[in-house]
Known about the structure:
It is a single chain. The chain is of the alpha/beta class and about 300 residues long. Helices cover about 45% and strands about 15% of the residues. It is built from 14 helices and nine strands. A five-stranded mixed β-sheet has the order 6-3-5-4-7. It has a four-stranded parallel β-sheet with strand order 2-1-8-9. It is globular. The two termini are about 10 Å apart.
Amino acid sequence: MFGFLFPGQGTVRVGMGAWLRRRPVARDRLDEIDALLSRPISPLCARGPLDRLVSTEHAQVAVTACNLAALAVLAEEGYEPAVVAGHSVGELTALHAAGVLDLAETVRLVETRARLMAVAGGGGGMRAVMGLAVERVEELAAEAAAPDEPVVVGLENAPGHVVVSGAAPALDRLEKLATDATKIMPLKVGDAYHSPLMAAAVPPWAAAVAVAAMRAPRVPVVPNVTGEPTTDLRTLREALVAQLTGRVRWTRTVGAVDAIAPGVEVGDSKVLAGLSRRAGARCLSMADPGTLRRLAKEVAA
């Protein structure tokens, strides 16, 4: 058994999903998703342009489509997860993999989430801070923030890999204060996700989650905001809403998954496999052509 990890919108690129199209079960799933969407995402994944694909409205849908198609490949090979988790929007695919959401509900929710976050506004951004412990970045964020210019730790991706999210002036102040950081890089995102600046999207998102058809999970799910495995449906609903403005505790999440089973990054990305290794956790990526053979060998061993 393996833990299934699903990547988020930062992994999108033109040409994503090409290897999945070569698998009939994945191609059928991508076509099914296109039919469920208000506008098919596959042409944009295949040909771009990049500026449209990386926009929140399209990126979240694109990465979810690839995640779901890769999951169909694993199901065809006979693999079922022992535990699941997803990075940011990837949590919706994780809920599908655990049996909480059916395919149509997953697609509906991701399209709703993408639209709400794209229009929430706030004028902020995100920056990756490399080489500092999360506690140090928290101190810097507290010093850089102002009452009307928040900045917070938005993502704990791995030890020494923290992303801050907030108002642009506060981000500039934090960068000037972080003289001990190895590197600080702006992320190519449209706003300050996983921060208080997403508050406007919370009420309509909470309403969408409240009416979504959900069933009790077949396996534990590790929500981003807690980093703790759970099978409680109420907890999962609440965590899905809290995640919009709350922190992605990915280091804790991969540790919780690794304690149950080795991980597999399910999608068209190698990002989570790399972050897992930095955190000392086991993880293969389905974007690596040899992964399915390695999984088969581990099962046979």
